[in-house]
Design a protein that fits this description.
Layout lengths: L20 H4 L8 H14 L2 H6 L10 H11 L2 E12 L2 E11 L3 E13 L2 E9 L26
Antiparallel strand pairs: 1-2, 2-3, 3-4
Length: 155
């Protein structure tokens, strides 16, 4: 099975080809900050470092930014994404999310991210780290397996 027919890593439930891939291939830009957030998460999962760099606001790019992004891609095994909140007003938006990654057994990256839209294009601007969320043992697992958390990553 090829990557295009797989469910998108952002866990939208859509095939990658109909979700984040068109953004990764620059076929069109993200319509919302949430779709940019999802596509950036998928880009980390799939190793699309240049996409991550171009969707980072230019004022936030450091000289070694691409190298830092590649290092994160090479050292992090992402497990799942949960969007908690999305607020958008004109050209400013915030997306609160939790991304889970592997680290004996997993770690949460809970962030409220800020996005700006300039000339019709959304950019990730920055974010504020937040405390871990409480995971219910009987909730579906964050990894998208379809099983309860307690039978998957909660065991």
């Amino acid at each position: 099975m090829n990557q295009r027919s797989l469910i998108c890593p952002c866990l939208s439930g859509k095939p990658y080809a109909n979700c984040c891939e068109p953004l990764h291939q620059a076929n069109h830009g993200a319509n919302t900050a949430e779709s940019l957030m999802r596509s950036r998460y998928s880009a980390f999962c799939l190793g699309h470092a240049n996409y991550l760099l171009t969707t980072l606001h230019p004022s936030k790019r450091r000289p070694d930014e691409l190298k830092q992004i590649e290092n994160t891609i090479n050292t992090t095994a992402w497990l799942g994404l949960k969007i908690l909140d999305h607020k958008q007003a004109n050209d400013l938006a915030e997306v609160e999310f939790v991304a889970f990654y592997e680290d004996a057994p997993f770690v949460q990256l809970h962030e409220r991210s800020r996005f700006t839209r300039e000339a019709g294009q959304w950019f990730y601007h920055d974010g504020v780290f937040m405390p871990d969320i409480k995971l219910g043992r009987n909730e579906p697992c964050f990894c998208g397996s379809g099983t309860k958390f307690k039978h998957c990553h909660g065991s």
